[in-house]
Amino acid sequence: LQQEIAQLRDQLELVSRQQPSAKPGGGAPGSANPPGASAGDPQEQTAYDGAMDLFRKGQYKEAAESLAAFTALYPNSQLAPSAQFYQGSSRYALKDFKGTIEQLNAMVQKSPDNARAPDALLIIAGSQIELNNRAGAKTTLQRIVRDYPTTPAATTAKSRLQLLQ
Question: What pTM was estimated for this model as a whole?
Answer without folding.
Answer: 0.76
